[in-house]
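Work Package 3 (structural annotation) set out to generate three-dimensional models for the target panel prioritized at the project kickoff. During this period the team completed the workflow that converts sequence records into discrete structure tokens, so that structures can be stored uniformly alongside our sequence database. As a representative example, we reproduce one entry of 636 residues exactly as it appears in the project archive.
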Amino acid sequence: MPPRTRGGYTSDAPRRRPTGSERRRRVHLREVDPVPDPDPVEHPQHDRDETEEVFEGAPGGPIDRSILRSFHKHVAAKIWLGEDRAPLKLVNHGAKLQLWELDMERSRIYETVQRSGLAPLTSCSHRVASRPMLSAFCERWQPETTTFHMPFGEMTITLDDVASILHIPVTGSMISFPQPLRVDDANALLVELLGTTDVEASRETEQCRSPSVRLLWLRDHFSTITDASSDDDIMFATRAFLLHLVGCTLFADKSATSVAVVYLELFRDLSMVGSYAWGAACLAYLYKQLTTATRFEVRQLGGYLTLLQAWIYEHFPEMFSSPDMSYTESRPRALRWRPHVIPDSLQSVRERLDRLQISEVCWEPYVDHRAEHPLPDIAWYSGCLKCGQVVEPYHPERVLRQFGYIQTIPPRPFTPPRPDRSILLEQYWERWTDHVLTDQSRGRRCHYSGSGESVPEYMAWYDRISHRIVQPPQLRSGFTTDARSSLPSHAASTSDTRAARALTLLRLVISGGREQSVDVFWGALNEAHGILAGSDETSASHSTPSPAPASHSTPSPATLPFFSPATFVYPPAASDDPPPLIVPPPPAPVAPPAASGPPPPLIVPPPPASVAPPAPTLDSTASTTVYVRAKRKKKT
């Protein structure tokens, strides 16, 4: 064999150019003087940080990006810059669960499902879900904190919410898989645990183009098995029913038609199904689906949407909910509500959430439910939740008000570890009692139940790190096209507060109906004009009201009160009858006193030429109330 040289070629072979890696190795072997580090300004890492600093100053974004580091990819950032996204397509299988019900002929399957702890899922799933409502809340989800960023602070779905809404176990073994399932392994699992043939399993996974099976396929092959079937068939049908159940509820993916075969491994031993923390896995999976849906290009939302929708009903009952009066506290709280699709648009829901006040939130909705289901201690656990390859952080210290405590400034959120470190995560979860918030971390309880209190410095901190308003003020429904074009370029950042005040003022006055006096309408318009013009006081040149009678004194803008939800008094509702027209009596003319005889008739001066025809003649009783009836136009 001919000898090899340093260049990697033999002496007899033709010479070739050395590769880049070979040239770099030669450079490292040379003895050269050490080169000083470049200036930090020229470092690529610094250039990336400098770009982020420029984005931090964008209107509507958080001032301090140390918490929401990926906000520039968030859908709320795109909405603030003028790009809108349609309501998300929702994956909801509430109606499919009724296609496979367990009756008296399948009592053996039903008993196993009851022992698994998943039986409440068969009855508490909502058949309908509101796209505008869920989409608007998804726009407020922040992946770094796994919380909804509301105008007044953070809120999230806790383990206490899962236990109360669904009545499924939140403690137990963590749902974990060693590695993602391949298609060949999925076929073998279907043959072993469901009793199908290799041909049937391969055909089904090929049709799904993934290690999954269709929900329809499960119903067609196993829904006809009854108690009269063999023990093996009943065992196969029980596993298929549980796989169908979690695929329609806890782990509903965006395929909208199939379920991953990997969950079938959890039903290998049917006696151990109840030992898993199904609620914690469901919450981790929903967190991941919400995080994915915060990207602007995503158009679909998966996960168990009944949990999300019921959580909204519980904490915002005055805005969205419709309660079921036949509900009893022994049942899951998801059954307390009548799910419905709200008629509002997505932009309308956004603006309602932007105006949401802290007093409109029900911070502790399960007070009456505690007798049946006390607050679980694991709800105070601070760590990671895991569901297969999904790992999401869980931060109860960021939502202390939902537990009845005064909210303080929370510590920085931690980054979850990689899913392949499942052993460490399982050990951490098994010792969850060592990782609950201490009494010192919880702080003090609120002075009043459900008051939603926070420390004085919390809102100032929250303003710096959060994105409180989603709908930009220049794109709200109260602005016309001409008004939008006339706004300056910095209107998004400088007139947000003034626009909100003006819209609130006009909205409250309009809602008062037509029975209000002209002074109220004129004063409200005058004040709103002044607010939008850049000052709270309106000069005389801003409005030119028509002359008013002497009996109608026009208040000055300085004396008009600001109409806020706390101070505005709504007038009584208008009746069905037409309102009477109040005509003031004409002033009596000054005449010389008569010695005797009847009094002279009253002389009514003619109206000015610019005024409409005179009012109808008053009767002898001098009544000042006259009903005006419009003449019908003749049909031509």
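The first strand starts at residue 89 and ends at 90.
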